[in-house]
Amino acid sequence: MQLTGGFLRVRPLLALGAASAVFASAPPVRAQVAQADLHTSAFVEPSKTSHLTVITPAANVAVQPAEFLDVHAAYTADIVSGATEAIKAGPVADVVTAATKFSDVRHQFGGGVAVTRKDTHLGVDYSYGTESDYRSQSFAVNAGTEFFQKNTQIELQYARGFDKVCTTNYAASTAPSGRTRLDSSKGCFTKTPDRASRDVDLDTLQAAWTQAWTPVFATQVVLTGALQHGFLANPYRGVVITPSGEDALENHPENRARGAFSLHGKYFIKPIAAAASAGVRLYRDTWDIFGQTYEVEFEKYVLPALRVLVHGRYYHQNGALFWSDDYTGGEPADGPRGQYWSGDRELSPLSSYLVGGRVLVAVQGTPDHRVLAVLLRLQGTAGLDILKTQLKDFTWSGKKPDDTLAGMLSLGLRGEF
């Protein structure tokens, strides 16, 4: 999986002036009185030993009480169930791990306002999330402008997160090798003596430059930087750290700086009413992970109201500086051992391949002839992606994991009033 957690999302490549055909964007928000989005997605990892299912329903509502003012609110839920190995062991004799079942529901509420004046905009957003073992809240501000006859856009975004994660109640003076993992979320965020909460502070800054070079070609450059501080491990995961099979709570550094650079280009092919795009993203952090993402996309109008999109993505990364598949002593051939240990496979060397597609159907109305008598526009989407991950040296007690294939289904419905 691509390591992008905590990074802000910027607007996709936008059509400006005559370049609107490049991106087949929806009508400007200024023309809308209200907009409602209902969508859901399902992530399924069909594994015999550590299956995972995540269902994510979401709703977004935006209203425009004045031409220059946009007010929006959102709700998202993550319904998670599955099983995973709680203790990461390398190829050590007589160490057996078993999958532990789990389930949880995460609720996230958010909202914000945006002010637009001619060619500039300013927005502020806030969100709050809660689940049995995690609390999150964040605010974000964004500002942007467009010039050169709307062919150039510059946007800046900053977000600050204040999260708390539940862990066992170990003292700061307790050696990492003596800290124990959570066995369940029971008692989290209460006065239960064997539970504690740890802070996670997140800062993210992002800058984007979108440029329409011709009526049919545009590019976007995005620079992202992020700082993480606090408890950055999985409170449920233990790692075997001795030849005799003793385990301790996963131990990650408390600080992590992350940076990414991405470049995307999109070209509208007039003769066939289609758009082709390609992009590259380079990622680096202070844990010595270097990631590379390459993606391509092709979208075509089949009918005036029907668009079909297919895309593919390849991702590759090396392992973190402290990554090893076996932390039981000595200097292994596959990585260093030291003061940190991890059972997170997304910190190991890996590659992933994603292929998928999406179908979009949109019906446009007018103020005099509305869709279903009330809508200016009705849009429905359906998408399916298949993700395959290749792990170079990650094992469970010397055995390769079987949860490396996943499917993602998404459905959406948007109405503009």
Describe the protein's architecture and organization:
- With 417 residues, this protein is an all-beta fold.
- It has one domain: Beta Barrel (Porin).
- Helices cover 1% and strands 58% of the residues.
- It is built from one helix and 19 strands.
- The protein has one helix at 20-23; strands at residues 34-45, 52-66, 69-85, 87-88, 99-117, 120-131, 134-147, 152-168, 195-214, 217-230, 238-240, 247-249, 255-269, 274-285, 290-303, 306-317, 350-364, 377-391, 405-416.
- Strands 1-2-3-5-6-7-8-9-10-13-14-15-16-17-18-19 form a 16-stranded antiparallel barrel. The protein has a three-stranded mixed sheet with strand order 4-11-12, with no helix packed on it.
- Strand 1 and strand 2 (52-66) form a beta hairpin.
- The longest helix has 4 residues, at 20-23.
- The protein is globular, with a radius of gyration of 24 Å.
- The protein starts with 19 loop residues before the first helix and ends with a strand.
- The model is unreliable at 1-6 and 14-31 (pLDDT under 50).
Describe what is shown at a glance.
This protein is an all-beta fold and 417 residues long. It has one helix spanning 20-23; strands at 34-45, 52-66, 69-85, 87-88, 99-117, 120-131, 134-147, 152-168, 195-214, 217-230, 238-240, 247-249, 255-269, 274-285, 290-303, 306-317, 350-364, 377-391, 405-416.
